[in-house]
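Standup notes
- DV: blocked on the single-chain target, sequence here:
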Amino acid sequence: MLKQSSLALLLLGGLAGVAGAAPARSLTLADCVRLALEAESTLRVQRIAERDADLQIRTQRSAFFPVIEAQIDFRHEAATTEYAYADDDGRYNTTTFTYGAGVRGLLPFGTSYRIALDAGTLYTDQSQSIYDRRHAASLSLTLTHPLLSGWRPSSTTAGLEVARADHVAMQKSVQARVSEVALSVARAYYALSAARETLRIAKRSLADVTKVQNWVQVRKDAGTASPVELIEAQTAVATRKQAQIAAEQSVKTAQAQLFALIYKGDARDANDLTGEVLPADRPDASQDDRQLMTLLQTALAKRAEIRQASNNLRARSIAASAADNRALPKLDLTFGAGLTALTGNCILQGTPGDPNNPGCSALNQDLVGGHGKAWGNVFTAKQPYVQVGLKLELPVTSAARRALADRAELFRERAREQLRGARIRVLTEVRSAFARVQALYRSVGAARQAATLARQAFSAVETQFKAGLTKADDVLRIQLSLAQNESTLASMLRQYAEARAALDAAIGELPERFNVRVR
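- DV (later): unblocked, structure below
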């Protein structure tokens, strides 16, 4: 994630000057991109949405957190005895006290579990011949697994998987927005660089024609130049001044467009708008020799929009599969295993030492004892048990569930078409950007050659004019051609740099170019 830092204060703080004035400050394109990413409000909103998606994962994950449970029960019952003589009204009382504690939860593959310790004691006033109180204790593990889900995600695990896929899709949405912001900044930055280069050309052009005007004035004073030549020179100077004013306005406009991207617009930045930004980076005019097929493969692997659409399809597929499961009858496999123990307080009368009437000593001593003895017997593992069963639930009607499943399938189909459309758009964008880069590179070469020839022609005609071998209008005409060719070269360099940035954005590598890492 992009970190808020003191970069804005360090870079933009230098723009604040005395009494609202601010000196010019040199910024690289990477500096401007980082400032813009800190200031971009839409990106901040997407970051909030990304955090919300992360919280959705935590919310869904809570279903898998174990739950500790405990219970205690007291039951009193007046039961009917089968022996009428046992009581005047043929009834007896039983009192049952039970308690237990355990841990239950859900495993990531959809199996629910419960591990529990349970115990109870039974009191009764019914005539007993062996035990007066009976005690039970157990340690148990119960597993329940849905059988009808097959290889699909179950409804119990689908929520977490959907949340994870949605979170990744939101991250890719943020990455896509970062690339858009970086491309917008690159275009504004190169526009400002080209505007300043055009202003430099306009100033030099004005200086050139001013020299010509001065030479014509000297010749007119000497009687070797006509008033018409002087008027032509003066007209050329006035035209160049207008061109310089227009270039200065273009610089202000381009700078305002860059300011709109890199400044946050709060009170702290109010004076920064009076400053100037001097682009430290010049457009790269080197040839881009990357191959189209390599660029297309890179775009399919890295482009955030494709990865976003792919994760969205994954999320909708999981949701559709889970919805199908909910529309089916529910069949669960249950498995239980554990250790139990039953004991009682022996009331069997006997005579000590009489083998014919041994009393309690004749009983299985594992079954004789109180509540503590029952718990002790549990962990001797002498009374284990295993149980297996099936649980079937048949909905009275599945029309509503089927409608939800059909709707989830429509969402999956829409996501599949969105992924297909994203791939087509990206591949088309890469091809178009690649072709534009190649065409503009040739245009830059032609513009550079024209500017070089124009500079040579102006130097030659200037020498001839100084020697009196040509007239002022020839110099002015060729100088105008020089200014136009140099301005064309500046425009071509700007367009070529923008086209290369657009190509990097099309393949998903523009943020990396500025060392911006977005998770």
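- Follow-up: The first strand starts at residue 24 and ends at 27.
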